[in-house]
Amino acid sequence: MNKIVLDLAVTLDGFIEGPNGEIDWCIMDDDMEFDEFLDSISAIFYGRVSYDIWGNYRPDESASGAEKEMLTKIHSKKKYVFSSQPRNDENAAFITGDIVGNVEKIRAASEKDIWLYGGSNLITTFVNNDLIDVYRVAVHPTALGAGKPLFAGLDGRLNLKLVDTRVFRSGVVQLIYERA
C-alpha cells in the first residue's frame, strides 16, 4: 500500500514558521533531491490555510527556472484539502468530514505515495489518528525562538524509528523516521 509521507522543514528549535508566518529561513539546495521526492508522489494533502497560501502559488517573473520547474511539478499532483469549509475548486478536492475514512480511500486509489504537506493542525490530526507512515523532517540550521511548532496538541507520545539520515551542503540535516 502507498504511504503517507510527512515531508517538511523545521528550524533547529522545532518551528515550521516564524511568529509572523515567515519561512525565509528555509533552504532549498540542489543536493536535497526534492525532484526525486516529487516523482515518488501522486498527491498532496493540505489543510485549508496552507492550501490557500501555497496550493496555487505562482512565483513572480524573477524566480529561478528551478523554482518554476519545481512548482510546475507540485501543481501537477492531485490536491486534497481538508477543511471544515467546503468549496468548489477546480484545482483541488475539498474534504470536510471523516478524515480517516477519506484518507484510506485516497491512499487505496493512489498510484504512488502521498505527501502530507500540512499545516500544523492537519499534521496533528494525522499524527493523532496514526495516519503517517514516514516522517521526513529537514532540520535547518536556524533557531527562531518563537513561531508555530511542528508538533502541538498531540494526544500522546509519538515513538518513531530512525531509518535514514542525510546531511546537505547547507547544513540542513534530514531525518527520516517510520513508526516504531
Summarize this structure as a short list of keywords or feature phrases:
180 residues; alpha/beta; 8-stranded mixed beta sheet; two-stranded antiparallel sheet; 10 strands; 25% helix
Beta-strand content bin:
25-35%
- Characterize the largest beta sheet: strand count, sense, and whether it forms a barrel: 8 strands, mixed
Order of helices and strands: EEHEHHEEHEHEEEE
Ranges where pLDDT stays below 50 over 5 or more residues in a row are: none
Mean pLDDT: 93
CATH topology: Dihydrofolate Reductase, subunit A
User: Could you state the CATH homologous superfamily?
Assistant: Dihydrofolate Reductase, subunit A
Number of helices: 5
Strand order of the largest sheet: 5-4-3-6-1-7-10-9
CATH architecture call = 3-Layer(aba) Sandwich
CATH class: Alpha Beta
